[in-house]
Design goal:
Homodimer. InterPro entries: Flavodoxin_fold, Flavoprotein-like_sf, FMN-dep_NADH:Q_OxRdtase_AzoR1, NADH:quinone_OxRdtase_FMN_depd. Its EC number is 1.6.5.-, 1.7.1.17. Pfam families: Flavodoxin_2. GO terms for molecular function: electron transfer activity; FMN binding; oxidoreductase activity, acting on NAD(P)H as acceptor; oxidoreductase activity, acting on NAD(P)H, quinone or similar compound as acceptor. The chain is an alpha/beta fold. The chain has a single domain, classed as Flavodoxin domain (Rossmann fold). It is 33% helix and 15% strand. It is built from five helices and five strands. Strands 2-1-3-4-5 form a five-stranded parallel beta sheet, with helices on both faces. Helix 4 links the parallel strand 4 and strand 5. Helix 1 runs parallel beside helix 5. The longest helix is centred in the last third of the chain and has 21 residues. The structure holds flavin mononucleotide. Flavin mononucleotide binds next to helix 1.
Length: 213
């Protein structure tokens, strides 16, 4: 049974573009039939607590002498890892906050990027998610396109590509929408049509990916 793990992290529960785009992907996935199952986790409304101890960053065999974590935090991390490991496809809604990740999504990353468990550090191959698709839906208020004055300021997309792609070995596809603040910021008003076109294109792309991945 193909299984999707769908994560959202926008703090906007009414007008979020990343939530709308991940929902379009999830609808297309579900429309493929009852065998296409979904686990949904809203990292904003049901946030994970931050990591309580450095031990949680390491497989037990890689921990330093005396490096431990509370049993309830080990159990929570195991649950979050099992949820990811059970997924054939990962879908992540990732709004840009302060040029980076929302803290809620960063905390999820902290739980699942575990050397020796989800990424290889020593002689034991430890990349169980290698080759699985990860679709990252980014949504930014400004523009970070090549040639724009803020090109290079996007510290959201590169981190997710490095963690999910390079570290965990997943095959990452980014569905990006930007200039989402054009209707709100007077200086960006001329960009409203472009912003809406980017949003529409991202919705179409997410629908196509959800129907085929
Ligand atoms: C706390 C916060 C920080 C933000 N920081 C940035 C930023 O650094 N750069 C930017 O382009 N937009 C920024 N924005 C705007 C969001 O990226 C924009 O509203 C985007 O559409 C959020 O995704 P969503 O529509 O899925 O909620 C910020 C918004 C919030 C709420």
């Amino acid at each position: 049974m193909p299984h999707l793990l769908h994560l959202d992290s926008s703090a906007d529960l009414t007008g979020s573009r990343s939530r709308a785009i991940t929902a379009a992907f999830a609808k297309a996935w579900a429309d493929r039939g009852a065998d296409h199952t979904i686990t949904y986790r809203d990292l904003h409304t049901d946030p994970l607590p931050r990591l309580s101890a450095t031990a949680l960053h390491w497989a037990p065999r890689l921990r330093a002498e005396g490096e431990t974590a509370p049993a309830e935090d080990e159990a929570r991390q195991r649950m979050v890892l099992d949820e990811l490991l059970a997924a054939d496809v990962l879908l992540v809604g990732a709004p840009m906050y302060n040029y980076s990740l929302p803290s809620t999504l960063k905390t999820w990353v902290d739980h699942v990027h575990v050397p020796g468990v989800t990424t290889t550090l020593d002689d034991t191959p430890s990349q169980p998610l290698a080759g699985r698709p990860a679709v990252v839906v980014t949504s930014a208020g400004g523009s970070y396109a090549e040639g724009s004055p803020t090109a290079g300021w996007d510290h959201l997309t590169p981190v997710l590509r490095i963690i999910l792609g390079d570290a965990l070995g997943m095959t990452v596809t980014v569905v990006a929408t930007e200039l989402t603040l054009a209707p709100r910021i007077p200086d960006l008003a001329p960009q409203v049509p472009h912003s809406e076109a980017l949003f529409a294109a991202a919705l179409d792309r997410a629908t196509a990916l959800g129907a085929t991945l």
